[in-house]
Write a sequence for this structure.
């Protein structure tokens, strides 16, 4: 017997899912809602982490610790790293854009496991609040985002335990997200769509998710062992009890080196989506891009000990990890030249999205070059734990990932809200960010080469001037957030109406209304087999009837 | 035999598109188990590294007996077979026999946990005595946690398939298969753990 309730008997007021803006505060299972939840939540944490960076740079204006006590400096430093990595970049480049875009790209109406998806997001706000509130309640962890023992065992235990718990929650969120992305990309493609026809961001997210699933659990196990050392006084990583600190470093970097790729591979994918649209050219070297991503995934898992050249690693280990790390420059270089070739001869519209993408390319190649340098043992032993490493790392994750996050917001904002962002404010934002970023971090290379150690509130007076220059750059970066914030808030109400496809793009998320309906497309999902088939004058294209392959063939 | 309340039906029409594609839950579980296996891999790697470079401190006691863990290995391997029989019977619609095999599997799991407890209480070293003792308890404890969760899953499946029209039945046997895959996984990890901790 089948009981079917008549449609009319369901009054709209009893819906279990709220509508309107309340959806964004609910346990919604819609991938677009979850994507925006990740983005807005991540940006809130970016502002908090940015305020901490401001506090750090204020302290470093003078060689003595006068702005805050040393232990507070250590806490702020630890929170800044943890918040920016685990609550801003990882959730946003993976969770936010992945959730919003991947179902569109594979031609699905939602992720493979929508409820798991919502669970993965809702682990983040409590973990983040717990982490930050630890500063006010017990005092936050003081051992840096790496939590190296024996430092993390000897600093106050309560803050360290809260740090471990929140990182475990965030790691769990990351693993759930990774499982969801792998299943969605491999299993939920609409019939007829082949793997090698997917937009590049799908490949980037597939590679990233493989790294997440393989490496994050190792961090979880390691942190559980560390918490035993702190709470139960076992001696896994405590040399005083016969333990071994280097084992912690191996296990930690087995996750945390791939974590760099977890932060930057999705950014690679997003840039590969943005550039072809605004250059009106196909993405150069699609196949080599795919193989490069997979090569980075494979190599990324076997280079972790290049973080440990000063930890008593034996010579054969140094040799292996130096060579393996140098090899990563090859697929990364292939991607770099592919982006340049995509730009080459294109009809580039130099809008905010492209400016931020080009800023990414410039910054990332600088960060990549210092990365190759750091992989060489003689050089690394010289600059280990100096500001040179700080500069390199920020060129990768800020100059790389964060620039791409902004580029992506400028690119997809019209799709998400149905309105355009103000282009003048966008360019002002780019100018302030690019100048501020380079002013802040380029001088730190010099500081590191001259021997200024990182993570310390006080330094030799001879470094004062360069530190003040660096802090000026940080101030510019802080100011750059203001035009951006004004832009995204004001444009949501007053921006020009975008229409369905303001960029005349060919990828599937643009072949629907802005903002998209709950089911992503009214009717069947489109089959886009050539997502980068640009290259014909715009007035010859009838976007309503032409597919990517038509455009590709008719072009020249 | 489905009845949809207006609320559930409404959700179906807005957000839930799971009915529009094949069931991928098993794929997701398998991916999760890969992640879980990596957690164990981290523990194993730590243990093997300790063994290679950190000698036992003078005066520290770390000795393991073989009989009890060998019995544990047999218990778990047999329980994998009984779980498999339970699944076969459920798919044939023979819920009573399925429940019998499930209960046997759960009892084997409980016997494993009991035997593990006996081992814990008879060992001459405690959690914080030395590095090897800590690693031993961390590894076997983490595995024991998995066995405990698996046993709970078995008991839930056992309860929910008590009638042929229950929540878990011949037409909806995914929960049983999921628990079974998990159980086989936990057994496989035990075999590796047995070799690394007790035999090497």
């Amino acid at each position: 017997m089948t009981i079917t309730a008549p449609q009319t008997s369901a009054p709209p007021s009893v819906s279990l899912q709220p509508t309107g803006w309340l959806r964004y505060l609910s346990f919604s299972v819609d991938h677009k809602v979850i994507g925006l939840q990740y983005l807005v939540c991540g940006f809130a944490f970016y502002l908090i982490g940015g305020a901490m960076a401001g506090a750090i740079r204020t302290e470093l204006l003078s060689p003595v610790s006068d702005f805050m006590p040393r232990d507070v400096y250590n806490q702020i430093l630890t929170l800044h790293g943890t918040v920016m990595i685990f609550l801003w970049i990882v959730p946003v480049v993976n969770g936010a854009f992945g959730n919003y875009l991947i179902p569109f790209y594979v031609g699905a109406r939602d992720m493979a496991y929508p409820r798991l998806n919502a669970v993965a997001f809702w682990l983040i706000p409590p973990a983040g609040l717990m982490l930050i509130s630890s500063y006010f309640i017990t005092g936050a962890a003081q051992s840096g985002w790496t939590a190296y023992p024996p430092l993390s065992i000897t600093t106050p235990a309560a803050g360290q335990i809260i740090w471990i718990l929140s990182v475990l929650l965030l790691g769990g969120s990351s693993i759930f997200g990774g499982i969801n992305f792998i299943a969605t990309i491999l299993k939920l493609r609409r019939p007829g769509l082949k793997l090698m026809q997917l937009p590049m961001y799908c490949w980037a997210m597939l590679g990233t998710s493989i790294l997440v699933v393989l490496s994050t659990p190792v961090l979880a196990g390691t942190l559980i062992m560390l918490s035993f050392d702190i709470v139960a006084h076992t001696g896994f990583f405590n040399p005083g009890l016969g333990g071994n600190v280097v084992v912690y470093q191996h296990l930690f970097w087995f996750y945390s080196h791939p974590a760099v790729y977890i932060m930057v591979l999705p950014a690679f994918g997003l840039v590969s989506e943005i550039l072809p649209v605004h250059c009106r050219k196909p993405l150069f070297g699609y196949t080599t891009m795919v193989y490069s991503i997979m090569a980075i995934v494979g190599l990324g898992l076997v280079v972790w000990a290049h973080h440990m050249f000063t930890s008593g690693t034996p010579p054969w280990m140094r040799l292996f990890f130096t060579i393996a790390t140098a090899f990563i420059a090859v697929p990364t270089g292939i991607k770099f030249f592919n982006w340049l070739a995509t730009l080459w001869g294109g009809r580039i519209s130099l809008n905010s999205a492209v400016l931020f993408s080009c800023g990414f390319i410039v910054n990332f190649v600088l960060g990549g070059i210092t990365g190759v340098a750091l992989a060489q043992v003689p050089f690394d032993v010289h600059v280990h734990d100096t500001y040179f490493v700080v500069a390199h790392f920020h060129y990768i994750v800020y100059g790389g990932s964060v620039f791409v996050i902004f580029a992506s917001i400028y690119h997809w904002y019209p799709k998400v809200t149905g309105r355009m962002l103000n282009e003048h404010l966008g360019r002002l934002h780019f100018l302030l960010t690019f100048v501020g970023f380079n002013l802040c971090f380029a001088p730190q290379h010099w500081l590191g080469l001259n021997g200024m150690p990182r993570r310390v509130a006080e330094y030799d007076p001879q470094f004062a001037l360069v530190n003040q220059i660096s802090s000026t750059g940080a101030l510019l970066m802080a100011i750059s957030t203001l035009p951006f914030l004004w832009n995204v808030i004001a444009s949501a109400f007053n921006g020009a109406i975008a229409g369905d496809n303001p960029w005349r793009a060919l990828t599937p998320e643009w072949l629907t209304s802005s903002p998209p309906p709950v089911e992503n497309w009214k009717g069947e999902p489109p089959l886009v087999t050539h997502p980068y088939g640009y290259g014909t004058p715009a007035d010859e294209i009838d976007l309503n009837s032409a597919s990517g392959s038509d455009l590709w063939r008719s072009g020249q | 035999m489905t009845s949809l309340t207006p609320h559930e039906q409404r959700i179906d029409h807005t957000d839930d598109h799971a009915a529009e594609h094949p069931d991928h839950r098993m794929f997701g579980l398998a991916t999760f188990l890969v992640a879980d296996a990596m957690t164990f891999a981290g523990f194993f790697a730590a243990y093997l590294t300790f063994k290679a470079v950190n000698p036992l401190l003078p005066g520290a006691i770390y000795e393991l007996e073989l009989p009890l863990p060998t019995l544990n290995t047999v218990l778990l391997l047999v329980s994998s077979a009984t779980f498999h029989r339970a699944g076969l019977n459920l798919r044939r619609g023979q819920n009573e026999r399925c429940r019998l095999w499930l209960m046997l599997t759960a009892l084997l799991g409980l016997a494993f946990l009991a035997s593990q407890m006996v081992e814990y209480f008879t060992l001459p070293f405690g959690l914080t005595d030395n590095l090897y003792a800590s690693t031993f308890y961390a590894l076997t404890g983490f595995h024991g946690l998995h066995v405990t969760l698996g046993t709970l899953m078995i008991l839930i499946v056992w309860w929910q398939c008590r009638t042929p029209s229950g929540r878990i039945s011949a037409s909806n046997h995914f929960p049983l298969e999921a628990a079974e895959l998990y159980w086989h996984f936990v057994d496989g990890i035990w075999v590796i753990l047995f070799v690394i901790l007790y035999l090497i």
About this structure: The radius of gyration of chain B is 21 Å. Chain B touches chain A through 51 residues (CB under 8 Å). Residues 1-14 of chain B have pLDDT under 50 and may be disordered.
